[in-house]
Amino acid sequence: MKIGAAAASSAVSAKTIRYYEQIGFLAPAPRRANSYRDYGEREIHELRFIGRARALGFSMEEIGALVSLWRDPGRSSRQVKQIAAEHLATLERRAGEIGSMIRALRGLIGSCRGDDRPQCPILEDLSSINSNS
User: Fold this and answer.
1) What is the DSSP string of 51-107?
2) Are 112 and 120 in contact (CB under 8 A)?
3) What is the pLDDT of residue 30?
4) pLDDT the model gives residue 20
5) Is 44 found in the same domain as 95?
6) Does the N terminus or the C terminus of the chain have fewer Cβ atoms within 10 A?
7) What is the mean pLDDT of each run of 10 residues along the chain (133 residues)?
8) Structural domains of the chain, count
């Protein structure tokens, strides 16, 4: 199938497919006699794999490692689990940071009157030298 059909079938844009080929996530598709790329089920499956990994928030580096491990029948599941566990720890840390930001913003919004007066605790906090960044 041509790149447009592969993009539609895998929910990945044609531009992204070309990028994945460029960085080695996807082997360059064979070319037809008319020079069009010819994608098969294997490539579509790999694109869906990469798309799922991206949806789970894995970094490009992590996805590259996962793709390599996925293609290696002699892989150790220990390596895969380690990558996933490290990613989970990163997500949990980020979730904690986001929770702190939400609580801080909620408090600031609650302290702002939101009226016609110029005083605004939100702006005062943002301009404060002692604010936690």
Assistant:
1) HHHHHTT--HHHHHHHHHHHH-TT--HHHHHHHHHHHHHHHHHHHHHHHHHHHHHHH
2) yes
3) 81
4) 94
5) no
6) C
7) 92 93 88 84 94 96 95 95 98 97 96 93 90 58
8) 2
Tokens 């996933």, located at residue: 84
Q: In this structure, is residue 71 part of a structural domain?
A: no
Task: State the CATH number of the domain containing residue 25.
Answer: 1.10.1660.10
Is 51 part of any domain?
Answer: yes
Contact 56, 22 (CB under 8 A): no
pTM of the model as a whole: 0.77
Residues 76, 79: Cα–Cα separation, whole Å: 6
Q: Does any domain span residue 64?
A: no
Q: Which domain holds residue 105?
A: 76-133
CA–CA separation, 81 and 40 (whole Å): 29
